[in-house]
From TrEMBL, chain A:
Protein name: DUF4374 domain-containing protein
From TrEMBL, chain B:
Name of the featured protein: Outer membrane receptor proteins, mostly Fe transport
TonB-dependent receptor plug domain location: 124-227
Family as reported in the entry's similarity comment: Belongs to the TonB-dependent receptor family.
Organism: Chitinophaga jiangningensis
Coiled coil: none
Amino acid sequence: MFSFSKKLLYTALSVAMIGGISSCTRYYENDLIVSNDGEQSDKYAIWLQLGSWPNTAQYVLGASSLSSGAVNLKGNGAEVTSKADYGIIPHKGFYYYPSTSATTGRFTKFQLSNNNLGIVKEVPFTYQSGISGYAFANDTTLIMVGTNGANSKVLCSVVNTNTLEIRNQELPVNPIPVGFTGVKTRNATYANGRLYVTIAYTATWPAPEYPAAITAIYDFPSLTPVKQLEDNRSASMGQSNMWMQGTHVDEKGDIYELAQPVGASVTLPSAIYRIRNGAAEYDASYFFNLNTTLGGAAVALYGIGYGKAIVKYKALPDDGTDAGHIFGYAVIDLPSARLLRKLNELPLDKGEMLETVTRDGNTVYIMVNAESEKDYVWMYDIATDQATPGLEVVGGYDYMLRVDKLK
Amino acid sequence: MKFNYFVLLVITTLVAITTKAQQPTAVLSGQVTSAAGHPLADAAVALKGTNNGAYTNATGKFIIEKVKPGKYTLVVTMMGYTKQERSVTIAAGTKATENFQMVEESVTKEGVTVISKSQNRQVKESGFAVNAIETRLLANTTTDMNQLLNRTTGVKVREQGGMGSDFNFSINGLSGKAVRFFIDGVPMEVMGSAMSLNNIPVNLAERVEVYKGVLPVTLGADALGGAVNLVTNQQIKNYLDASYSVGSFNSHRGAITGQITGKKTGIIARVSGFVNYSDNDYTMKRMKVYDSTEKTYVRRDVRRFHDQYRSAMVQAEAGIANKKWADVLFIGAGLSNTGRDIQSGTDQERVYGAAVQSGSAWNTTLRYKKNNLFTEGLDLNVFASHTADKSKITDTTEVQYSWDGSYRPYDQAELNQIKSINHISRPRNYARVNLSYKLSAAHSFNLNYTFDQVTNNTYNELLADKDDNPAKLGKNLVGLAYRQDLVDGRLQNTFFGKYYGLNLRQPRSVAGSGEITSAADNQHYFGYGVATRYMVLPALGVKASYEKAYRLQEVGEMFGNGIDQTGNPDLRPENSNNFNLGAFYNLKVGQHRIYGEAGAFYRDAVDFIYARAYQSNSKVSRFENTSKVQVKGFEAEVQYEYGDIFRASANASYQSAINNTKYASGSKTGTPEATYKNKIPNQPWFFGNAAASIGQNNLFTKKDRLQLGWDFQYVHWFFLTWEEFAAASTKSKVPTQYIQHLAVTYSLQDGRYNISAECRNFTDQRVYDNFSLQKPGRAFYVKLRYFIH
């Protein structure tokens, strides 16, 4: 029979086991709330990605200057994996993140300071998950455009950046042409009370897109359609993702839009179109063929003031992957549709879908991921037309995702 | 062609062996038993000075044929027993019988004895790096195979949630497609996709073997990192093991396995099956939900609300045994069915409330075994099957759920951009032929051939009614092993070569240019390896093994899917040089038994296949050989037993996986990647387990037993991303886990009736295998089990 001593032993063992280990583990919860004051933000930020799939990770690194010195990620910078990604909108001391890639259904306002990407405010946001372009109507009004998952509707969200109140509205576009399967938005541009949305009609890959450069124009804030422009000398107007620039509004209020045909079968050139201030037509006298000008297709357009822009272009033939160091930068004059010069002092850059150019006053910062040489944020002085290396990014990072002026 | 040379070599070898064996002689047979009269299996019986000999079977019997007339010394050896020698005279054309009664090695002579070798121990003491786990110790608990294996050295199972959740199984740091799963040497996929380690109750297998890095040829598969083989009860005698458990989260598990032999007909019928059900509605602690009154996100404890899981399987076979023309002939059939709600994505930031997955499969099987085919020592083993396996993922709701169960309209479906009812159908034909030949006690050969063909049909019911480009994958794998048992069985060497033939077909493929073409490809690869073991002392052995291992390309990886993945005809298989070193020690003094083993391993794996963006401005990807990984590590385990009263064990595993990819994909020169030579993130690298049980027989009545068991798992915290980079305060970590389980079992009539109560995770830890994916907290279960054998 079960003796008392045995009972005691079993009971003691059980108690000892249960009481054995206390729970003192710390768990990750990314709720570092910061105050709503853009002044605390870092001045500049660099986004980097390391590692081969599946162990890729993204980081953001704050910097007080991009003109000299060196930075690296060793024990420095904020890890953003599972929190945000480089599909993010910088504006006056804050980042706005619609979780387009993460599809968490949240819209978050962050601030970067002291290696911390802290949450300022966060609201549910499920109206759209495929945002491709954004524009600011003013300092507190952010407009985001995208398409629904089935690529059948164009969606627009207008955000009050202080309260994060969001107005959502579908934007009407011309019907999808016969033989094509969907519509995709590209860039959004705001100028003088109007919203210009570049769009493309898509077919099942690898069939090319509908061969036209299209811009849909809406009155803002009513978002009523004004007109949809179409020109067949090029195609795929604007950029397919919100982390590249493809349009520019100059000091005169004229809009310049880069069309850059994509897809294996496309033969049309990349080109810049112009819409004059207040007009609802492409400027028929203006068509800047960048393939012939640069010797390779342009992939991004960054206005830098004074009627000028930086274009990123394919300086070497494309091998079909995004891994090659084939991208060069050139300075162009927009009104006269002229190449000013190629920035040949910069090494060739890697990665097409990256936000690698930002401007602060008369200095344009161009972050270049070189194959063999050191990686620098290069400084292009608009006034003197000189390009010199600035901040060195040390470490040989796989992808240099974006460089931002935050305030 | 390389293959033809290989086949020629194999045939020549077999012919040579067979020819040599065909010499007319006498037959010597007998039985080996213990002092108590129990038959001893796998004792070595040899004619001294010759290459002739045999091992005893499960009933202790042996037979040595083709013995030339003459005087011999017959030697019987078995670990833990004193060697016996006996002089025998064999006359031509006679059938001699010699029986042996073995005596355990004397305690007084050497102070120690070792226990007799079970099959489990034989596997453990082979040259291969292998965990061999007997399931009987946990047969009265609610444990499933994953939970069982997760407690062993070098293995880490990372589950995404509760019962039936997705999991990642890693062996010595290699996981995913690098690890293959078998039941009795046959790939588990043959049973249908419902059959998975996360739902097979522990009662269905007698033991489990985990091969690390180096695989015997009998497991015919391209396993880069290792394999798990569940071994079911293969005994001839009748038995029944039936159990049912109920517990927290409305969880139910039932399992049955048994065998019955018709007394008149001699027909044997076997059945095994299980049912599993759970609501998996465990509490998720401190989840982010939106408070519409406060207009802010807050943290609250919520219950999972869309994670119901059910699965059922039954496999039956009938046949005969011990006929002249067949030792075993069985035909069988199986059915399985599974269904599950999908609650979250790869992290708990993504919540689903409507998407579901379901599947069903059936199979037919044929099993044939004939020992001593044509000649003594030549054993044939054949298995063939056809499987129909269908599954469906339904994702048709355009809403987005929150953890509080609320939802909002969304502009896309839950899992995918567009609504889908995706059907996946994978008919599979599989055959395995194994020929083993024991030339003598010292030399044996094994030739294994597997044919594995699967067609992959996938389509979205809302867009199509069939797959326009079903991919067909055929594998022809041949393995040949030669095993030596030298120095009185103390030295065991296995040399092996493997041929991997891969045949890929897809009626339609999309090339980078947009052209649509038919695609087919054949690939051939050769692997090889060696496993060796030496018994330094009767209780102490050392072992080493090596294999050049492969994980072959899949059809989708080679040809793309025609939708958003393009083909890559230059894709190579993932391959690795795998090395293992180990030692084991087994000591028995009176009632005390100590077993210890330790091992070190090295893996140098290259050409890992991952999808990469193909043309950067489109959403098209291509599979490429992108990365290289080097893994080094060591592991150790100790076990202590005091009779059947007390048992304790502890183990620890350490592995250091280093990124060996020097240049970013697409570059062969330039600046090395920042992460080159860095520790691979998001992988447990130090973990251990401990268990103890104490039991008492004849407590309340005769032949009863009360047993208390405790189990503890430890996983050291690890970084989600690369260790060196970013400020420490911002880095995401998977925290250290201390998980403890308790179980109490009361058995009657020598284990025929059993009732168990179990508390899992009794300290109610927040348990994570993966970053931000909580597993269940404290849970209670009761299990009833009837076992007769």
